[in-house]
Structure formats: structure tokens, C-alpha cells
């Protein structure tokens, strides 16, 4: 009697080796990169060209100056999302396997990333209001935190290539908590003073800078 073929594991099932499912893994990476690229591209839609008469240079200059809050939100969002893409890209390059939980965490991460253009527009328009600052901080903070937890999970489940563990482990530990920590800590600060809450985000970039110096020693 012929042996029955083993049933194919359902989508999102147990651990799968990357080498045996390279096409599926490549589609996951391509989808993630596409979502991140679209989110970054949509940031520019918040920068509307001022509507003035064609020969009124003073009015045009004033209109561009009025866009300063939107330029700030754009630059900040681009920098943070760009860094998260770099970390995400390098992290997925180290994987030797994946499972349903990791993919679910990745989808949660991407669901927060696609909210960044909305949060950025909110910040650029109502940056002096605490609700706008808190919303922006919550979206960026949670997205960064999910990324850290996703890396931590992959390390715990030994989904990361052994040779790449030393370089990956810091991003799943205290080093990775710099950016989410700065954004989440700014939430109670913004309740008192929205501007002070935004200044707290500078801690994220200071943290990254200090971590790079420490890592280079």
C-alpha cells in the first residue's frame, strides 16, 4: 500500500526553513519593503504647494514658511521610518526560518507603519495640540517597539543565523529600545507641554548616536 503524503502545513503554521521556502520568504520581504516604501512616499503628500499668484514671490515665500511644521513632521518621519526599514531589512536578511507568529508580528508592525503618514499630517497641522503629538508618538513608538519584540522573538526561537546573532541581539534588547522609549516617554510630557513632548523625541536620535559610538568601540 502506498504511503500517504504528509499533509501540507496550513498558512501561518509552524516553523519553516527559509532554504526550503525561499519563494514564500522572498514575497514576505518584498511585501514588507513595498509597504515601507509606500508609507515613506505618502509623507510627501502632506506638503502641498502654496496657492498664490504667479508673480507674488513674497506670498510664495510666506506660504513655504507656513509649511515649516509639515516639513518638520516629514523630515522626522522619514528619518525614523528610514532607520526602521534599515533595521527591518538587515534583520530579515539574518533569518534562517520563519513561523506564523513572526509573520503575524510583521503584519502588526506594517499596520502601524502605514499609519505614519496620517500621524505625520496630524502633527504638521496641529503640532501645538497635545492630542496630535500624543497620536504621533504612540504610532511611532508602538511601531518601533513591535520591531524590537519581533527581533527578540526571532532570537529566542533561534530563527536567526548563528553567525549573525551577536550583531542582531542588541536590536532586540536595550539598544533597540532607544527610539520606542523616547516616543513613548514623550506622551506624558506632551500632556503638560506639546512642544516639550516633541523635543523629547530628540532623545531618540541622541540614543542612536550614543549606541553607534558604543558599538564602534
Q: Can you describe this structure in just a few lines?
A:
By secondary structure, the chain is an all-alpha fold. The chain is built from 10 helices and 2 strands. A two-stranded antiparallel ribbon has the order 1-2.
Tally of DSSP β-strands: 2
Helix content: 55-70%
- Overall average pLDDT: 86
State the distance separating the first and last CA atoms: 65 Å
Summarize the biggest pleated sheet: 2 strands, antiparallel
Question: How would you describe the shape?
Answer: globular
How many separate domains?
1
State which percent range the strand residues make up: under 5%
Note poorly predicted spans.
1-12
User: What is the chain-wise order of helices and strands?
Assistant: EHHHEHHHHHHH
Could you say which structural class the secondary elements and strand pairing correspond to?
A: mainly alpha
Estimated radius of gyration: 21 Å
Please work out how many helical segments DSSP would assign. 10
Kindly describe this structure.
This protein has 217 residues and is mostly helical. The protein is built from ten helices and two strands. Helix 8 packs antiparallel against helix 10 (202-216). The longest helix is centred in the middle third of the chain and has 27 residues, at 130-156. The radius of gyration is 21 Å and the shape is globular. The termini are far apart. Residues 1-12 have low confidence and may be disordered.
Amino acid at each position: 500500500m502506498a504511503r500517504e503524503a504528509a499533509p501540507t502545513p496550513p498558512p501561518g503554521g509552524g516553523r519553516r526553513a527559509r532554504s526550503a521556502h525561499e519563494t514564500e520568504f522572498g514575497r514576505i520581504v518584498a511585501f514588507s519593503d513595498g509597504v515601507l516604501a509606500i508609507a515613506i512616499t505618502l509623507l510627501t503628500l502632506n506638503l502641498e504647494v502654496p496657492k498664490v499668484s504667479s508673480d507674488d514671490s513674497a506670498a510664495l515665500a510666506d506660504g513655504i514658511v507656513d509649511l515649516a511644521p509639515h516639513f518638520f513632521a516629514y523630515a522626522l518621519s522619514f528619518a525614523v521610518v528610514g532607520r526602521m526599514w534599515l533595521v527591518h531589512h538587515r534583520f530579515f536578511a539574518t533569518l534562517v526560518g520563519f513561523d506564523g507568529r513572526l509573520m503575524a508580528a510583521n503584519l502588526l508592525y506594517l499596520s502601524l507603519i502605514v499609519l505614519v503618514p496620517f500621524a505625520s499630517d496630524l502633527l504638521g497641522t496641529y503640532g501645538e495640540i497635545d492630542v496630535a503629538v500624543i497620536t504621533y508618538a504612540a504610532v511611532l513608538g508602538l511601531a518601533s517597539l513591535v520591531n524590537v519584540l519581533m527581533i527578540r522573538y526571532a532570537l529566542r526561537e533561534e530563527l536567526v543565523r548563528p553567525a549573525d546573532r551577536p550583531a542582531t541581539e542588541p536590536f532586540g534588547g536595550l539598544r533597540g529600545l532607544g527610539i520606542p522609549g523616547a516616543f513613548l516617554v514623550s506622551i506624558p510630557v506632551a500632556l503638560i507641554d506639546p512642544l516639550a513632548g516633541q523635543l523629547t523625541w530628540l532623545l531618540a536620535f541622541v540614543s542612536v548616536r550614543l549606541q553607534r559610538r558604543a558599538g564602534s568601540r
